[in-house]
Amino acid sequence: MFQWNTIFTLILYFIYPLIKFSILAFYLRILGPSNKRYRISVWLLIAFNVAILVSTVAALLQMCNPPAGLFYPWIQATCNISDVVFVVQAALQVLTDFLCLLPPIPFVLSLNLSRSRKAGVLLPILIGFVYVVEIQSPIYILLTS
């Protein structure tokens, strides 16, 4: 029998960046052609997400020697499971969530709209920020600890 908790953790580490990739690709599709600087910043966010994903999976797979000990409990493995990896990964996910909310804000502020309409357009972005800070991060830390 597999260690299902480890499998679910690995899947979770892949799902969060994929969601962010889809949001960033949407930004590139909608807002990217007009501004080279904007495209570069979104591509940097994508690269940062890939780096976090690769480093976290590598750290998780290096916790046991041999790495198969993470998945198969009957294999004799020495595991050094550290909560530091999970806490750092959770903090980086919250940081990238926040950074993914920032790119559309300058475009919204530069629109030729009244202040109340700009506020109405920015409201979903601010609700997303509240989700990241207040709801997602404590749940994520509880699930991965």
Task: Describe the SSE topology.
Blueprint: H1 4-31, H2 36-61, E1 64-65, E2 78-79, H3 83-101, H4 104-109, H5 115-144
Antiparallel strand pairs: 1-2
What this model shows, in words?
It is a single chain. This protein has 145 residues and is mainly alpha-helical. Helices cover 75% and strands 3% of the residues. Strands 1-2 form a two-stranded antiparallel ribbon. The mean pLDDT is 78.
Observed structural traits:
3% strand; 75% helix; elongated; mainly alpha
Structural class: mainly alpha
Termini, distance in Å? 22 Å
The main sheet comes to: 2 strands, antiparallel
> Order of strands side by side in the largest beta sheet?
1-2
Strand count: 2
Q: Helices and strands, in N-to-C order?
A: HHEEHHH
Radius of gyration: 19 Å
| Poorly predicted sequence stretches spanning 5 or more consecutive residues | none
Q: How much helix is in the residues? A: over 70%
- Counting H and I runs of at least 4 residues, what is the number of helices? 5
Percent strand equals under 5%
Shape: elongated
- Determine the mean pLDDT: 78
Number of domains: 1
Brief sketch in words of this structure:
The protein has 145 residues and is mainly alpha-helical. 75% of the residues lie in helices and 3% in strands. It has one domain.
